[in-house]
Amino acid sequence: MMIQQKNLLEKTKWTFLLTFLLYSITIQAQITEKVLSEIDVKTIESETDLHDITFTSENKGFIVGEKGKLAKTENAGNSWTVESLKTRKNLNAIYFETPTKGWIAGDNGLVLSTEDGGQTWKKRGVSTRACLYDISKDEDGKIWITGTSGTLLSYDVTKSKWVKHDVSTNATLYTVNIKTNGTASAYGEEVYLSADNLNESTSSQIYTGSTKDATGVILSTQSGDIIKHEETEVQTILSNNTKSYNDITKYDATLLIVGTEGTLDYSLDNGDDWSDAMVQTSKDLNETTFSTENTGWAVGDEGTVVKLSFESTANTVNSRLSQEDNSISNFELEITPNPTSHRMQIITNQENYNIIIRDALGKLVLEDTSTDLKKIISVTDYAPGMYFVTIQKNATKITKRVVVTRTK
Questions:
Q1: Residues 86-105 pLDDT 10s
Q2: What pLDDT, in 10s, does the model give residues 126-140?
Q3: pLDDT of 151 above 50
Q4: Cβ(319)–Cβ(83) under 8 Å?
Q5: Environment class of 271 (CB within 10 Å of its CB; exposed 0-12, middle 13-18, buried 19+)
Q6: Are the CB atoms for 186 and 175 separated by under 8 Å?
Q7: Which of 10, 52, 55, 218 could lock 291 by a disulfide, CB 3.0 to 4.6 Å apart?
Q8: Paired strand residues for 377
Q9: C-alpha–C-alpha distance, residues 311 and 86, integer Å
Q10: Cβ distance 357 to 376 under 8 Å?
Q11: Per residue, what are the HEC states of 328-350?
């Protein structure tokens, strides 16, 4: 009898200990999230509209604009020097094949080239008076230029001259995409062009097709290429009839779109979800690019240059293995808009939670409780910068980063 009581006592002790451990163990889960952490808007040439931007390295970049203006940076855009090339024509596009060899295209058939990394530029002869808008390189290494009146040019390296391709349209062509097999796609002013074996002939048959009004609509081909206008077998990935888009660029899963009146939207997941960067400018933004994986750029009218900095952050979520905490294992949190200049809205699927906001230095800015699934917090008194918003209920907490900006 004593042995049975002792065994029962031992069993009870271990059961209590195991139960205590189960209710005390905390699991740490680390989630990596990419966020837009900083937006910098500056003016480098207030009387010049800027048309295109490119980088040949993380630190070295170029911008072209009106009346022969060329801007350079050697320090990752911290400062820009502006010079006037020997022309008063508008410069519309710039492209570098290598860090040393580059091209500029502009109005009235202007084409310039450099062989020394942009130190000097030489005028190249082109048999067109069209305004030229885009420069690109196909998978075979051939350079292409598009422009007004259906202008489509390619550079013949063996003959060191530009070749004009006959196309059955007088529409303005804004961009071109040439594949290895010679198949060409050109997108422009309510027109989509396509041709086979364009590399083999200067008079390939090209068909035209009218498109819908592309204002505020970004379309994607089934292969994932992003285009500006509609063609067959495409899908709409973003539609906003209140905006007019001018350019789009992509780096891995991150996309940037720019447009009129300071429009700059971005996606961090290949275009599935989009956010407004809320850039503090009303100037039209014309072109966008990336200098690194986490640094995006846009240029626009009246010398506007926008730099966007992204960061990948690891958020640690602590979850205690208890019956009470298992009921909130699907803790959800969304903060919008982000960046924000006036107020933020906290959206969660929980009730009765704590809100903790700290600045970038860790200083406590706000501590509050809420029972609302949607909680609005004013940030008009917050200094511009980065803030960390933590939502906590019992042993579970989620922290997200928010950028506060100011309207200039």
A1: 899 999 999 999 999 999 99
A2: 888 999 988 988 767
A3: yes
A4: no
A5: buried
A6: yes
A7: 55
A8: 344
A9: 40
A10: no
A11: CCCCCEEEECCCECCEEEEEECC
Nearest to 405 by CA among 315, 313, 276: 276
Task: Using DSSP, state whether 136 is helix, strand or coil.
Answer: strand
Instruction: Write the CB contacts of 364 (distance below 8 Å, at least 6 apart in sequence).
Output: 356, 357, 358
User: Which of 8-22, 160-174, 231-245, 386-400 is modeled with the greatest confidence?
Assistant: 386-400
DSSP structure class, residue 134: E
* CB-based contact 393:352 (threshold 8 Å): yes
The one-letter amino acid at 141: G
* Cα 234 to Cα 237: distance, rounded to the nearest angstrom: 9
* Placement of tokens 């509209």 in the chain: 49
> pLDDT tens digits, residue range 23-54?
444 444 455 577 888 889 999 988 899 999 99
For residues 120 and 137, is the Cβ–Cβ distance under 8 A? no
C-beta separation of 133 from 147 below 8 A: yes
Instruction: Please report the domains of the chain, with CATH numbers, ordered by start residue.
Output: 35-311 (2.130.10.10), 315-408 (2.60.40.10)
Instruction: Tell me how far the alpha carbon of residue 98 is from its chain's centroid.
Output: 23
Cis peptide before 339 (omega within 30 of 0): yes
Say how many residues make up the chain. Answer: 408
**Maximum CA extent, the chain:** 109
Structure tokens at 178: 């040439």
Q: 113: part of which helix (H) or strand (E)?
A: strand 111-114
Measured between alpha carbons, how far is 341 from 170 in angstroms, rounded to an integer?
A: 45
Token pair of 405, please? Answer: 């900006």
